[in-house]
């Protein structure tokens, strides 16, 4: 199941991000974890962040063992492929559509 944190804005959500959300949620589900989107086009992000153009999303990691979080990051990275960047931040996993070439 996909949950969306209260206040998350889905403005200008790109289709690639929607696909990325479904793929990432399946990785969480494989591990029996709840999947919560904590940010899309809302919140404060770096200047020129892909969040502001609907090309990034953040996933909750609170309450998940750090070893498992590292596994999630790697599995999501592989599942999304080269067109996405997946980064472990202090409080969440960040994914953005960033095609190479």
What is the topological layout?
Elements lengths: L1 E3 L10 H16 L4 E5 L16 E5 L5 H15 L3 E5 L3 E6 L4
Parallel strand pairs: 1-2
Antiparallel strand pairs: 2-3, 3-5, 4-5
Helix pairs in contact: 1-2
Can I get a quick summary?
The chain is of the alpha+beta class and 101 residues long. The protein has helices at residues 15-30, 66-80, and strands at residues 2-4, 35-39, 56-60, 84-88, 92-97. The protein has a five-stranded mixed sheet.
Terminus-to-terminus distance: 33 Å
Structural class: alpha+beta
* Helix coverage percent: 25-40%
Can you write the helix and strand succession as a string?
Answer: EHEEHEE
State the total count of DSSP E strands: 5
* Unreliable spans: none
Mean pLDDT: 91
Total number of helices: 2
Strand order of the largest sheet: 1-2-3-5-4
Main sheet record: 5 strands, mixed
Taking Cα atoms only, what radius of gyration do you get, to the nearest Å?
A: 12 Å
Residues in β-strands, percent? 15-25%
Shape: globular
Features:
101 residues, five-stranded mixed β-sheet, 5 strands, 24% strand
Task: Explain what the structure shows.
With 101 residues, the protein is α+β, with helices and mostly antiparallel strands. It is 31% helix and 24% strand. Helix 1 links the parallel strand 1 (2-4) and strand 2. It is globular and about 30 Å long.
């Amino acid at each position: 199941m996909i949950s969306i944190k209260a206040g998350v804005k889905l403005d200008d959500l790109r289709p690639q991000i929607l696909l990325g959300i479904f793929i990432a949620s399946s990785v969480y589900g494989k591990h029996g974890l709840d999947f919560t989107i904590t940010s899309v086009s809302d919140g404060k992000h770096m200047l020129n962040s892909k969040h502001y153009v609907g090309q990034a999303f953040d996933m909750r990691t609170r309450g998940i063992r750090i070893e498992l979080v590292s596994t999630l990051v790697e599995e999501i990275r592989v599942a999304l492929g080269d067109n996405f960047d997946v980064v472990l931040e202090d409080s969440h996993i960040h994914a953005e559509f960033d095609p190479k070439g």
